[in-house]
Amino acid sequence: MSIAIGFGRAVKQLRxxxxxxxxxxxxxxxxxxxxxxxxERGVAVPSLATIAKIAQALA
Length: 59
Description:
Blueprint: H1 3-17, H2 22-28, H3 33-41, H4 48-58
């Protein structure tokens, strides 16, 4: 499994635990919902800045 796919699965799992929709998490992280979906599917590889935004939104 690639790092991108593993990271995306972890984001999706945590998003589910928080009961956030993709739209809610994307808004909290100041990201586009489509881009967040690509991250969750492992299609997009986020920068460290984007990873930090997602982490902050889930904190």
